[in-house]
Write a structure and sequence with these properties.
The protein has helices at about 50-60, 100-110; strands at about 1-10, 15-25, 25-30, 35, 35-45, 75-80, 85-90, 115-125, 130-135, 140-155, 155-165, 170-175, 180, 195-205, 210-220. The chain has about 220 residues and is mostly beta strands. A hairpin with a 3-residue loop joins β2 (about 15-25) and β3 (about 25-30).
Length: about 220
């Protein structure tokens, strides 16, 4: 039986598709399309009693409804007992539904530590971006349009940028042990600062093709 469901969706670039379903016993399943790791996740909610209390408190009030939002805004929806709250993603939520929205956000962030079929990213000082499978199940990915970009930040300003694709890559049934290294030609490995890499491609979630963005950071 479902305790609460949470969705964060956006159609404008970069698109988002963040999903979370939590059962009354605390078992949770989720999907993330952005962050340090993308794909499917499953585990147990850390603060189940706190989430139950937040759900009970939310039931006492009316769910908030987002006003007219900017065209590029992400929308979060929380479904509880057949009622749905809609809010702009990331913003504080006043009233009795606020703690429940916050609890769902935290639970989705924590679930990333329990991958089922996911791809994580990392970057080295020489600008090589690695994509690597996490979890036990296969996650099909479409890498024909894979694009990686590496940016160096120093003293709050951009100090270097380079990008690359991965020629010859197509559909990959990424499973345990799979990884892919993408070198970025023209990257200046000197200079310190923080290196931030992004990788964009498409993942196949049971026939739903989801644009995903992985972000990796390396402190200089």
């Amino acid at each position: 039986m479902s305790l609460v469901e949470f969705r964060r969706l956006a159609d404008a670039p970069p698109p988002e598709r963040e999903l979370l379903a939590i059962e009354v016993d605390g078992a949770a399943v989720g999907w993330r399309s952005t962050g340090s790791s993308v794909g499917r996740f499953a585990g147990a909610v850390g603060d189940l009693e706190g989430l139950r209390a937040a759900a009970a408190h939310a039931e006492e009030g009316e769910p908030p409804k987002a006003a007219e939002l900017p065209a590029d805004a992400s929308v979060e929806r929380v479904v509880l007992g057949g009622r749905t709250a809609s809010v702009e993603a990331g913003l504080p939520v006043a009233g009795p539904w606020g703690p429940l929205v916050d609890g769902c956000r935290r639970a989705l962030d924590e679930l990333v530590a329990s991958p089922v079929a996911a791809i994580a990213g990392s970057v080295t000082a020489d600008g090589t971006v690695r994509l690597e499978h996490r979890g036990r199940d296969v996650l099909p990915v479409e890498l024909g349009a894979l694009r990686v970009e590496v940016v160096r930040w120093r003293d709050g300003a951009e100090a270097g940028r380079a990008g690359a694709g991965a020629a010859g890559q197509g559909r990959v049934e990424a499973g345990p042990g799979w990884s892919l290294d993408v070198a970025v030609p023209g990257w200046d490995a000197s200079g310190g600062g923080q290196v931030v890499a992004t990788a964009t491609f498409v993942a196949d979630d049971g026939g739903v093709f989801v644009p995903v963005t992985i972000t990796a950071r390396l402190a200089g």
